[in-house]
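Structure ticket #2291
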Amino acid sequence: MKPVPEISEVTEPYWRAAAEGRFMLPRCNTCDGVHHPPRRWCPHCWSQDMSWAEMSGRGHVMTFSIVHQPPSEGFEVPYILAVVKLEEGPQMMCNIVKCTTGDVTIGMGVSVIFETRGDIALPQFKPA
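Resolution: structure written out below.
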C-alpha cells in the first residue's frame, strides 16, 4: 500500500478539496501570490492573510526523472516523478500518470488528476 500524507491544520483544506476532486492552493490576500506547499505565511511577502483559491489544474513539466527503485512497498516501477509549473505560478513535485516513461518531455502540457488513497486524494498530473 502506498503511503498516505500526514494531514495538519495547515494542509487540511488542501487535502479535503483534493478528496472532492478540486485543486485548491493558498492565495495571499496581501500580494495575490499563490504558493505550494500550503503554509501559514506567504513566501512572497510574509503575510499571514491567506485564503484558498481553486486552481486551473494546468501546467507544464519543468523537469522529471524516471524512478526505477521504489521508495517503499506499493509503488509500481518505473514511474515518472516530475516538477510541474502551474499556470498560476507555483511549482510542485508530483507524478505524471497515464503516460509511458518514453512519452514524457520537458515543457509537456499537463492537467491535474486525483489518485485516491484511502480517505484522501493526491493531485497527480497527466498529459493535457
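Closing remark: The mean pLDDT is 96.
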